[in-house]
Specification:
heterotrimer; A mainly alpha (about 260); B mainly alpha (about 220); C alpha/beta (about 260); A: about 260 residues; mainly alpha; MetI-like fold; C: alpha/beta; Rossmann fold; six-stranded mixed β-sheet; 10 strands; about 40% helix; disordered N terminus
Chain lengths: ~260, ~220, ~260
């Protein structure tokens, strides 16, 4: 037993465990006594099966949006991260401003703004799908910029010095010396960002753009079976989210090991 | 195209009430979530077998599920499954408290486990009573190490409250949306909404960064 | 195989530490494979040997920081393996000094030393202060008493650590490579304190690489390698008459 475990155990290990048990029992008891048995008995999951096609399509849209977010994010993020190191002041400020504003406001507000407020400025009405993709892409760009920037800054200074000393042109310097290790360091946080964007696609459902949550909403309205549909959908998000997390964890461990070998 | 500041001034009370609601829900969820977080954290640290499994499951569950899905489910499905009735705001607070508890539990756990092992061994060897070890040896460095994460989480929580607009909770986004719908001044109200969130979150973001910076300067120990 | 040097077999009341056939493993790795030895009251025993050989592990089993998997230990009459209460009692009477000092960074030197007596023994603030100042003076850092550990050198920090352990008025002091983390010029200030402590009659068990110190101060040296005691003798015999291959090998490497 390590020191901290010993200390925690000393602090009343048995008390904590019994307390937790009582708490669980209390919660379960409360749930059981306040359950609406009539509804529960009447649950009919066949609605899920009937609409499996639509739900599956919704899932594909969700995954597609996630991919778009990740792809655009990495691309724009890399470009902007490089720009953020620019010696030109205004360029740096612009990138910093964009990143800060997008990161410090909710995706929901950005989505509504793009769909309802932007048309007033541009005179062009975007469809819900366009608004959704734009919103999530812009959101992704800002977050990925931060991550890539951190990755760039974590490249040991020695590499920069070597690149300069060897007289490498800027393009080569970036693509062969700086970005490869930066991107490798950045892969695990990138993975976890992608997962959070996967979760974020659900927000886009307020505009009914056809991803999983929007589809669920429409089916639920059509069948009057919200519990079955939304619970199933929640389960889908959970399973996929959990699977992604495990993969990301595996990736992180793999990166940690290969770092030792490569460098 | 002009920006109509006047209309913002006219509807200032509604927007303000939105801010109050946002702050209120954030605060309540944070407080309740803190209690839940402590329980879950210690459940995971001290629990043997079933206690540990349940805590881990609960934490993973509320960290994996999309916030929007959780909020929506609590609002639309839970009342059907239960005989009790919750208002929109109450279901919002329930959902966000659970969400907060899960995240805070992990932050707390990381903070506690980050305390230098050597100091704990020294404390044990000296025979210092357990309560004192917690208060004098574990809590001070743990709090310092958790600060950036907690502040970051707080800004995340504020952003999540925007999702409550979808379940008719009268927070900032909801008000902006409704007022926009009434007056067609979407540009003004949604921009104002964004600005309000920014004004709240930007300082938090800076505080988190400052806190992190201070940690690294003192040498992450 | 254990070799116990039988000078004058200690009588039961003389025995401070009795280690009997102790075994300890970490996963697949056998750290201690049946270690036996005794330390009498007032004795200074230095434990030497190659890294990873089990020296520190042995030391840490004595105050319960490592739980043993086999055999038994008796410290001042208290038995291990034991209950939480028994382990706590042992720790009250045994002090430990670590290689990495382990001072509490958020407390001044004064608070570091006074914390344990105040909270564990419940002595008054005045008495704690008096004791703290006396000990800080004894280890020679009185002018630093209100500084924080980060403001002190390694040697100073370790001396504070020794004072902190002594503040609990232990009957035995365990030292786990106390000078290994110090720059060479600071090693002596710590060894001086330890020498002084030994001279005052403290029962000490010291894991160390400082052979000069061991030869000069120890009553006995224990050579621990591969989880076993391979030699156990007073300094002259230990250094001049190594008895087995490993012992000879070790001697040749360090001298």
């Amino acid at each position: 037993m390590s020191a901290i475990q010993e200390i925690i155990e000393d602090s009343g290990g048995p008390v904590i465990r019994w307390g937790l048990l009582l708490l669980c029992l209390a919660v379960v008891g409360y749930a059981l006594t306040n359950a609406n048995w009539h509804t529960i008995r009447g649950l009919d999951f066949s609605a899920v099966w009937i609409y499996r096609g639509a739900l599956f399509n919704g899932l594909l849209v969700t995954l597609g949006l996630t991919l778009i977010a990740a792809a655009f994010g990495i691309l724009a993020g890399t470009v902007l991260a490089v720009l953020s190191q620019s010696p030109v002041g205004p360029v740096r400020w612009l990138v910093a401003g964009y990143v800060e504003v997008v990161r410090d406001t909710p995706l929901m507000v950005q989505l509504l703004w793009i769909h309802f407020a932007l048309p007033i400025i541009t005179g062009y009405n975007t469809t819900p799908v366009e608004s959704g993709m734009l919103a999530i892409a812009l959101h992704a760009g800002a977050y990925f910029t931060e991550v890539v920037r951190a990755g760039i800054q974590s490249v040991p200074h020695g590499q920069w010095d070597a690149a300069y000393a060897l007289g490498l042109p800027m393009w080569t310097r970036w693509t062969r010396v700086i970005l490869p290790p930066a991107l490798r360091i950045v892969l695990p946080p990138l993975a976890s960002l992608t997962i959070s964007f996967f979760k974020g696609t659900a927000i886009l459902s307020v505009l009914q753009i056809g991803e999983l949550m929007s589809v669920a909403g429409r089916i639920s309205n059509a069948t009057f079976r919200p519990v079955e549909i939304f619970s199933f959908v929640a389960l889908v998000y959970l399973i996929i989210g959990y699977a992604f997390s495990r993969l990301a964890g595996r990736l992180e461990r793999y990166m940690a090991r290969s770092e030792g070998r490569a460098s | 195209m002009t920006f109509d500041f006047l209309i913002l001034r006219q509807h200032f009370p509604e927007m303000l009430s939105g801010v109050v609601t946002t702050v209120r829900i954030t605060a309540l969820s944070l407080v309740l979530g803190s209690f839940g977080g402590v329980v879950l954290c210690f459940g995971k640290l001290a629990g043997k077998g079933i206690g540990h499994v349940v805590s881990r499951f609960v934490i993973d569950f509320f960290r994996t599920i999309p916030e929007f899905v959780l909020i929506f489910w609590v609002y639309s499905c839970l009342p059907l499954l239960m005989t009790l009735r919750l208002s929109s705001e109450a279901s919002a607070i329930l959902a966000l408290s659970l969400y907060s508890a899960a995240y805070l539990a992990e932050i707390l756990r990381a903070g506690i486990l980050s305390v230098d092992r050597g100091q704990l061994e020294a404390s044990l060897s000296l025979g210092i009573p357990t309560a004192t070890i917690w208060v004098r040896v574990i809590v001070p460095p743990a709090v310092r190490r958790m600060s950036p994460a907690i502040i970051s989480f707080l800004s995340e929580l504020v952003k999540v409250t925007a999702l409550l607009s979808a379940i008719s909770v009268a927070e900032i986004t909801y008000q902006a949306d409704i007022l926009g719908g009434q007056t067609f001044a979407f540009l003004e109200f949604l921009t104002a909404a964004g600005a309000l969130y920014f004004v709240i979150i930007f300082p938090l973001s800076m505080a988190a960064r400052y806190s992190e910076h201070r940690l690294h300067r003192q040498g992450v120990r | 195989m254990n070799e116990a040097a039988a000078l004058n077999p200690p009588t039961p009341s003389d025995v401070a530490i009795l280690v009997n056939d102790v075994r300890k493993h970490f996963g697949d790795f056998q750290a201690l494979r049946g270690v036996s030895t005794t330390v009498s009251k007032g004795e200074v025993v230095c434990v030497v040997g190659p890294s990873g050989g089990g020296k520190s592990t042995l030391l840490r089993t004595i105050n319960g920081l490592e739980k043993i998997d086999g055999g038994s230990i008796e410290v001042l009459g208290l038995k291990l393996p034991g209950s939480r209460r028994e382990i706590q009692n042992i720790r009250r009477r045994v002090g430990m000094v670590f290689q990495s000092f382990n001072l509490f960074p958020q407390m001044t030197v004064r608070r570091n030393v006074a914390l344990a007596p105040r909270t564990a023994l419940g002595i008054s603030r005045d008495e704690a202060n008096e004791r703290t100042e006396r000990l800080i003076r004894r280890v020679g850092i009185f002018d630093q008493i209100d500084k924080y550990p980060s403001q002190l050198s390694g040697g100073q920090q370790q001396r504070v650590a020794i004072a902190r352990a002594l503040a609990m008025q232990p009957e035995i002091m365990l030292f786990d490579e106390p000078t290994s983390a110090l720059d060479p010029e600071m090693v002596n200030e710590v060894l001086d304190v330890m020498r002084d402590l030994a001279g005052a009659g403290m029962t000490m068990m010291v894991v160390t690489h400082e052979m000069g110190f061991a030869r000069e101060v120890a009553d006995r040296l224990l050579f621990v390698a591969e989880g076993r005691v391979l030699a156990d003798a007073p300094p002259t015999e230990f250094f001049d008459n190594p008895t087995n291959e490993r012992h000879i090998g070790f001697m040749s490497k360090i001298l």
